[in-house]
User: Fold this.
Amino acid sequence: MSFLKRVFIIRDSVSVVALLLFLTKILGFIKFRMIASLFGASGELDIFWAAFIVPDTLFNILVAGSLNASIIPVFSDILTKDGEKKLLKLFIGTSFITVLISAALILVLFITADDVSRFLVSSGYIGTFLSLKEISNSDIELLSSLMKIMLLSPLLLGISSVITGFLQVHRKFFITTVSPLVYNVGIIFGAKILVENFGLGVKGLAWAVIIGSVLHFLIQLPLVLRFITESLDIHSLKRIGGSIKYYTRAIFRIFTLAVPRAVSYLGEQFNVGVNTIISLSLTEGALSAYKFAISLHLFPVHVFGGAVAQVSLPDFSELYSKGKLVELRASFNKALRRTLFIIFPSVAIIVVLRLPLVRLAYGVGQFDWWDTVVTSWALALLGPAIIGQAVVALALRVLYSAEETKWPLIATFVTAVVNIMGSYYFTNFFSHYLDWRPIISQIGLQLGHAFSGGEAATVIATSKSLSADLGKWFTTRNVYDAAVGGLSLSLSLAFMVEMVINMWFVHLKVRAVSWKETVKPNLVMAIAATIMGIVMYFLFRLTDFSLDTTRTIQVAILFVVTSFAGIVTYLLLCYAFGVKEIEILYSRGRALVYSVLRRS
Assistant:
């Protein structure tokens, strides 16, 4: 088989999907870097992110977070049992109903946009979290205007996502992964032109989101039209056109399964809303710094975890539909190990090298050094969230393949409670960063002397003093930029809790969790990644490198060299520990080299 033919055969594989997702995230960084250059971590950009919440929530609740959870399992089942024509009929009917529901909700939100904006920024919720800055009427008007512009995006992305589900059931992952890539391209060029050339400010950025949404839809349209025209003649299309007025059993099944997931995602978006409201009560630019950190931490989640999860759902659905639970368990554990094999070292790199990473990603224009420090602080505390999100993504796909969308509601509810409490208390605590850091250091020294000298009274007195201080720090709000780290820490804690709960549900549903296949191999990789992080940290400190923010090449060299040393350490440790994935990586790499050599 020729090398070129191999490329075309594997174009819908995990590796190619991961590569496309990697390119998408690179474009995402370029997008955020451009936004950082145009607006910095500013109050104006805070309002844009706040306005983006409503259309983004609408889209995710209707489609990405709910409908897609039920579309692929049902589509896969129909394709396996009833054939292509029945699937096309179901696809067209589902698309029609999705458009109707989306359009109705968008119309309602467009009419009530002013009231929604006032609720977001003028309700008692901000006061509840001790708002430290005042939001003017002009801010409310801008928020409403931006929201109205971006409400068109959920309609376009909604129908596009139904198409994505249809194509992924047919294992057409290449084009469905290209669509978010062109979405970013549309936003980048749209914002560049509308903001810089036409001077539209954040409104230009909002219109750029619409341009990206149009491209997301159009890029997939030719392929799905080809499926329709090749499988159905004009008479079949007419019959389908008449039948979409009615709910078929399968369509009802899709939306029935979608409702629990919609409620679950609403809970997840509630977390986003809570964090947004709390961030508006912090120092100016806190929300933007948090958003920039979120974008960076999502890189490994979307590229590595997303690639495996995206390709796995149709496979999980097919195996469950055929009753092959043994194969499903094996497939899940293999996917989980391969995901965490890359996620663990990614977390180590992000946490240890957060400063140069943030500077490389966003360090241009209005994004100054203090913006870099605050964003990297938020990024470091998002490290555990990367692991939690990657595992949750796979666990949910096993549950969705089994058409189980109600159980994750429990995990979402618990996660929301953890996040709300954590966001409030941790942002309070970190707002006192300048107070507690020297005090805790001093108390540590005092306790050390007290323990070594056997002074029990001193230990008790010091502990009581620390306890009183902690109570004050956790329950009162101060003014300091480090408070934004509380949002990151609470999100990490919430995702780790959600990971544990959903993995338990996976075990209850399909008995897929075991010490030998699940816990032990992933624990070994976690230990290897921890040692990798320690090596990188000491290497980073040994260089005694002073970051010159005007010299990007020096920052890049430090990041690349330290990361490379860490990756080599991780791979050697995995080889020494007998991790299966390192053997697979080695054999595939050797096969690729041999193929290239034979080709040459």
Notes: The chain has 25 helices and no strands. Confidence is low (pLDDT under 50) at residues 1-12, 124-133. The two ends are 14 Å apart (CA to CA).
